């Protein structure tokens, strides 16, 4: 099965050969009977879409090597959190990690958005909400004496991690989620996927906002 | 971008750049999407003409006759030119400069042969673009494709001249790869046009 035919001449060539075969079969079937041509067209199109979707799933995830950017003796911690960014469990862990070392924390808050709004580039509301949560969290960390900066990231948490790693690097990643059953990220196995994708130790912190508020 | 720095920022908003989509890949997707819409508009018009003639026993309607055999030979020539294009690129990847030059020259010649044959077909087909909706769509679609072939030939001519000037190496052959991708897509579009207009 051809992969993305725009990436190389070899892929485009393979795509051409598949197109020749596709239309040859449709034309041959239509020459026998029009309805047969339609059946072959539908069957081949469905098969092509199915194979393409399967080939996308089978593509092995590439494990990104993360370049270290901090100075000697500095520990860089990348935190990915959205609604749980101000959670007490997360802040306690960051305080503990920052004890006794020169820790540099980057908190990234993915701007979660609906698919339709993402496609329409209507991200202002999502980014503003993420920025508000981030600001509150940074104020709290500053009070606790943790040197931290923050950024609003891509709505896809894995993409937000990848973006942050390009400029920040990290010795460790902390992913904060709601408890099982409430967390969309856990349902999507974001933590497992991040462990497969990034060559950095990853810690998962569960923040139960309901328990904290009661 | 620091959240604190953000609160003190003046002037236009800081550009939000994500690595989700690579700029070059996005550019190629947008280009292909625009091409698909362009051809799509013509195909829509073509199928509209067919749909509004449901009583037609044969297509195209009388008095139009298409030279299916000549166009079929032309299709074989164009598809063969893709083989030679692929051969040219595989040759330079193996360091075979003679293969690259021969492949590009053959591709160029076959592309020219296709274009000249199409012009001869236009001259002898017996109708013109002003002869009803079918004539307009036929010349519009095949002419649009012919324009793409012309652009492809221009790119190929540049690559061919460069190959004879000693450009391209097994490691650096971007100037052949890009025209190659474009050429294959011109061929793909012709297969769609030929199968739809001449055969189905």
Structural category of chain A: alpha/beta
Molecular shape of chain B: globular
Taking pLDDT < 50 over at least 5 consecutive residues as the criterion, the unreliable ranges of chain A are none
Tell me the series of helices and strands of chain A, N- to C-terminal. HHEHEHHEHEHHEH
Total helix count of chain B?
6
- Main sheet overview of chain A: 5 strands, parallel
Helix coverage percent of chain B? over 70%
Strand/helix succession of chain B: HHHHHH
Q: Tell me the span between the first and last alpha carbons of chain A.
A: 55 Å
Distance between the termini of chain B: 58 Å
Name the overall outline of chain A.
elongated
Radius of gyration of chain B from CA coordinates: 22 Å
Per DSSP, what share of the residues of chain A sits in E-state strands of 2 or more residues?
Answer: 15-25%
Mean pLDDT of chain B: 85
How would you describe this structure to a colleague?
- The complex is a heterodimer of chains A (214) and B (200).
- Chain A is an alpha/beta fold.
- Chain A contains nine helices and five strands.
- Chain A has helices at residues 9-32, 34-58, 88-98, 115-119, 124-143, 157-168, 184-187, 190-197, 209-213; strands at 74-80, 102-110, 148-153, 172-177, 202-206.
- In chain A, helix 3 (88-98) links the parallel strand 1 (74-80) and strand 2.
- Chain A is elongated.
- Chain B is mostly helical.
- Helices cover 74% and strands 0% of the residues of chain B.
- Chain B has helices at 3-7, 23-51, 68-93, 97-124, 132-164, 174-199.
- The radius of gyration of chain B is 22 Å and the shape is globular.
- Chain A binds chain B through residues 5-10, 12-13, 15-16, 19-20, 23, 26-27, 30, 37, 107, 123, 127, 131, 134-135, 138, 149-152, 154, 156, 159, 162-163, 166, and chain B through 1-4, 6-7, 16, 18-20, 25, 28-29, 32, 79, 82, 85-86, 89, 176-177, 180-181, 184-185, 187-188, 191-192, 195, 199-200.
